[in-house]
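Why run this: before we spend reagent on co-expression, it is cheaper to look at a predicted model of the complex and decide which construct boundaries make sense. The entries below are exactly what would go into the expression plan.
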Amino acid sequence: MKELGSGTVYTETVVYSPPEAYVNDVPYQLAIVELAGGRRVTGRVAGERAHIGDRVEFAEFRNDVPFFRKTQTS
Amino acid sequence: MRPVAVVGIGKTAFGAFADRDLRSLAVEAGQKALKNGNATPEQVEAFYLGNFAGPSFVGQNHLAPYIASGIGMHGVPATRFEAACASSGSAFFHAASAVAAGIYDVVLVAGVEKMTSQPTPKVTEILAGAGDLCGEVRAGATFPALFAMIARRHMCQYGTTREHMAAVAVKNHANGAKNPLAHMRKVITMEQALAGKPIAEPLTVYDCSLVSDGAAAVLIMPADRARDFSEKPVRVLGVAQTSDNVALDEKDDITTFGAVKTSAEKAYKMAGVEARDIQFAEVHDCFTIAEIIAIEDLGFVKKGEGGPYSLAGGTCLNGERPVNASGGLKSKGHPVGATGVGQICDVVEQIRGEAGERQVKRNGLGLAQNLGGSGATSVITILGPA
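The model came back. Tokens follow.
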């Protein structure tokens, strides 16, 4: 498992109507995070709600899904 | 390449039909198109079917010959095309290309989807299969979530507002209320649209198209034979299909659909027209933001002006350039595999002057835009009188 480091929220949403696999997770925040170097990944934001431009850092992989945490408001 | 014409159209009602199976819907649309084009099943040389997820929604595979034989077409090549929500647009593109190339003369193209027999979380999961399962979908992306992230970015970059998106829903519901075959014939207000139940922020239930059952079909042939079959043949002036990345996080700019732009450029060039010449359009409003982006990518308005133009009424039935006079996917319904051919039927009806209460005034040049996934497939068809 590679650390993804920190990045910036490129876009985000909070999901209320889930697919079957995630019915117990709602509501959850999904985001596309732009990492250092410009690569973007789609993952979850745990904890405090993040908005476009906010800084986040990689927390962990859960079932291969990257989870981020907000570190700084834009 | 030979000029191609549409001579027959056939649509089922779109809606939730507990007593109808997938095959019966497709057969009904196909038989209506043959009747409308004054043709018999024996005259058809090939059958092209668009269907996104029949195997997942209802467990049935091998759909094209299954439906062809139900229509009474025996022995002809019968093939299913899958391109997410652009499945039947793609079937139409390949069918029209085959007729233009001289491979066949008389071809039936149909699209069908039977979605309402599954509960919403299952439908959501099946639809998500049109995204990147190893990335965005595993993280929990649904199609509303992907378009919600597109909407957030469009709002951030261009100042698009919730009111701009709600205006699309209000307009499409007003149009759909005039369409006897629409799934939801219900006028809604701006206040209702803004206060809808959240699905994926900032999208509410009123920003999302409907989960529907339905089918549509068209009969096409070389334009020089069309008058033998129809008094009102409609010319396929341009048709193009292009592709782009499936995953949203692999695109440089998610506020635009690159494939829509490239397919529109090709179709405009083939038809010898420019964006400003298009008088009305059926566009792929799977979500309200998708219609706003569509009118930008098609070149009807400048980038970023899709929201204000929609709120100002430019796309209304009596506006400068009517968009989704049928009610669109939002109100007419979105049986995904049927949508592309359904849009072509709606444009043909307008050009023939047969759209009743929702008839547009300037009906000489129409366009259908069918989008697959979050933009990985785009099919553009430009139609005019033959």
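The first helix of chain B runs from residue 22 to 36. Chain B has a mean pLDDT of 97. Bring this page to Monday's planning discussion.
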